Amino acid sequence: MGRQTNTDERRLEIVIGLMRVIARHGYAGASIQEIAKEAGLTAGLIHYHFESKQEILLTLFGHLEALVEGRMAERLAALGEKVSAHAELDAMIDAFLALDTKSDERAVMCWTMLSAEAIHNPELGRLFGDAIARHEKRIEAILTRATSRARPRPAAIREAAAAILAAIHGSFLLGCAAPGVIPKGSAADSVRRMARGVVDGI
To answer: How far apart are the C-alpha atoms of 153 and 119, rounded to whole Å?
Structure first.
């Protein structure tokens, strides 16, 4: 992978600035001036690197997706080449929910706020829908592998994948909107146990 250019670094600073502002004030409260202040830049530099706040938002969404993909790749690499379906599912859940030294609560809060913003923002809605569809397909593939001997109906696999995905995203929502409802650090374990029950019930 090549070195980041100054432009890449500056754009990332701006994207992270937006993430921090959204985590505090929501997207509606994220003015260019606030983003610039958080990034330690001038508003003019923000406009130089991005045409609009919308462009920063869509870039931020891609950044958050890349963070999850990176966490997942690290966990799968640590498991070695022959990964069982159950271990792969655990790794995927942990990539979303496990607390570790690389966890970023602001990123989780931002993802939750972006999921709400996606309802009213068609461009973001398409990106969010595509991301959810990719996650669901990945879970479906894992579940198909985990239950290959039982040969379950495809509809049962889809329903199970949707339930696991809902548990992941529901954990995000409760963790951000109702802090304390889910004991800190317990979400990944709880969803992993729930997922095993779902797999056993297919």
So the answer is: 31
